Amino acid sequence: MASIGTQVNSTVVGIISAVIFILVGIALGPTVLAAAADINATAMADVFMGDVLVTLAQFIGFFYYLGVVLGGLGGIWASVKYRG
Questions:
Q1: What is the pTM of this model?
Q2: Contact, 71 vs 25, CB < 8 A?
Q3: Cα–Cα dist 55/27, whole Å
Q4: Cα angle: 25, vertex 58, 17; to 5 degrees
Q5: Helices 60-80/2-37 angle, 10° precision
Q6: Residue 36 in contact with residue 57, Cβ under 8 Å?
Q7: Which DSSP string corresponds to 12-74?
Q8: Per-residue pLDDT for the chain (84 aa), expressed as one digit of tens each?
């Protein structure tokens, strides 16, 4: 019985941690997008491969939110997987 309680406790803590991770990631999203908006072609004109950086800057929001969602799903999956 004690092992069942331990498994339930670790599952609940894992799910709560994953939800907090997702919420903090979503809350920080506008800050990340604002920082990415400061990357423009004029500022990167003299930088080596600046045009590549400008192109990648357009995808920063997508990759950020994709990482938050996949990280949250991975955290939830890790907390609920069977440990038998």
A1: 0.79
A2: yes
A3: 25
A4: 10
A5: 180
A6: yes
A7: HHHHHHHHHHHHHHHHHHHHHHHHHHT--TTTTTTSTTHHHHHHHHTTHHHHHHHHHHHHHHH
A8: 778 888 888 889 999 999 999 999 999 999 999 988 888 777 777 888 888 888 888 899 999 999 999 999 999 999 888 765
78-83 LR contacts (CB < 8 Å, sep 24+): 78/14, 79/10, 79/11, 79/13, 79/14, 79/15, 79/17, 79/18, 80/11, 80/14, 80/15, 83/7
At 55, give phi and psi (nearest 5°).
Answer: -65, -45
Beta-carbon contacts of residue 73 (< 8 Å; ≥ 6 apart): 18
Q: Answer for the pair 68, 26: CB distance below 8 angstroms, yes or no.
A: yes
Query: How many CB atoms are located within 10 Å of the residue 63 CB?
Result: 12
List phi, psi (to 5°) of 74: -65, -40
